[in-house]
Write a structure and sequence with these properties.
Its EC number is 2.7.1.6. By secondary structure, the protein is of the alpha+beta class. It is 40% helix and 22% strand.
Length: 378
């Protein structure tokens, strides 16, 4: 059963009728450009084939009813008075409704299904937000062309920032809504402009392996917020970090922690530009050293890696991966490894053995294929 069919079936079981439609939005993996979105930098994510689906039917009595097997629990509430959102997932839906404020909205029944791994740093939250936002936009007559999708992404970001309390920078929501099959999304986080950059690993005999370390990735424990505050303080002292030409220019920062944080942002933006050049030159093998350098920076300068992520990256490289790094906000979650297609199984096996030897959770794996953004799927 597809995820869309599962959402529709869950809707029928819970509400005894068919939804008006089902909308799907993908998770994402960021090829390069981590922790630079909120600094107005550049990032290069791609939408995954894993999706979250929202089956939706409008109501006219001010009631919001939410069900989900994948996220757990059932929620019932009056608009403006949400209650019982098990595990907090309902807050994302309520936040999107509040931030989007769809014309004429007076309640809804919504059933959610998903195969985006939760807590893996693959943006299950943005997939949920984007699926609901696109559904409400289409049902309410809001624009869903590219400028409209940019506006939906901004509403989803406000939902996560203001309603859920996670200070994300918008990359995830932009990718979920504006991704394109066969392309990475070059996102200018200062202007919101996007460019779709073709990515063809298969014809080069390469594959992008995603390693879910099964170490939960949590952004609400304060560490992510502290990194963002560090970057904002460095920006306050120096001006836009995107305009800082060299790491040497960061010497004006006397605080060594701020200097390391800013150093990551400056070098990471340069790595995005190098990655885009590699893809434009149809030379994706050049991505390997770029991924390696990014992991060192995230581990040492930004200090957001973990023992699970380092184990996965080190084992992948030792088994022949061309490059590897942690992805997402950090402190758990997933890593990626650029591999020769013939080496994928060996790399996965090496990562699994390394985790077992260190008494770490057993990792899970998926292959990343650049896929389409949010769309109506039933």
């Amino acid at each position: 059963m597809t995820v869309a069919a599962a959402a529709a079936a869950g809707f029928a079981r819970a509400f005894g009728a068919a939804p008006e439609g089902v909308w799907c939005a993908p998770g994402r993996v960021n090829l390069i450009g981590e922790h630079v979105d909120y600094a107005g930098g550049l990032c290069l994510p791609l939408a995954l084939s894993r999706v979250t689906a929202a089956a939706v039917r409008r109501r006219d009595d001010g009631t919001l009813r939410l069900v989900s097997e994948g996220f757990g629990g059932v929620s019932f509430g009056r608009l403006g008075q949400p209650e019982g959102h098990t595990g907090g997932w309902g807050a994302y839906v309520v936040g999107v409704i509040g931030a989007l404020d769809p014309p004429g909205f007076a309640g809804a029944d919504i059933a959610i299904a998903s195969d985006v791994p939760i807590g893996a740093g693959l943006s299950s939250s943005a997939a949920l937000e984007a699926a609901v936002a696109l559904a409400l936009a289409e049902l309410s007559g809001l624009p869903v062309d590219d400028p409209g999708r940019a506006a939906l992404a901004a509403a989803c970001m406000r939902a996560e920032n203001d309603y859920v309390g996670v200070p994300t920078g918008g990359m995830d929501q932009q990718t979920a809504l504006r991704g394109r099959a066969g392309h990475a999304l070059l996102l200018d986080c200062a202007t919101g402009e996007v460019e779709h950059v073709p990515i063809d690993l298969e014809s080069h005999g390469l594959a992008l392996l995603v390693v879910d370390t099964d170490a939960p990735h949590r952004l609400v424990d304060g560490q992510y917020g502290q990194r963002r505050r560090d970057v904002e303080e460095a920006t306050r002292r120096l001006g836009s970090l995107r305009d800082v030409g060299t790491v040497a220019a960061l010497g004006a920062l006397t605080d060594p922690v701020l200097r390391r944080r800013a150093g990551h942002v400056v070098t990471e933006i340069a790595r995005v530009r190098a990655a885009v050049a590699a893809l434009r030159d149809d030379a994706p093998e050049r991505l390997g050293p770029i991924l390696d350098a990014a992991h060192r920076s995230l581990r040492d300068d930004f200090e957001v890696s973990s023992v699970e992520l380092d184990s996965a990256v080190d084992a992948a490289r030792a088994a022949g991966a061309l490059g590897a790094r942690m992805v997402g906000g950090g402190f758990g979650g997933s890593a990626i490894a650029l591999c020769r297609a013939t080496d994928v199984d060996a790399v996965a096996q090496a990562v699994t053995v390394a985790a077992r030897e260190r008494d770490l959770p057993r990792p899970k794996f998926l292959l990343a294929t650049a896929s389409a953004g949010a769309r109506r799927c039933a």
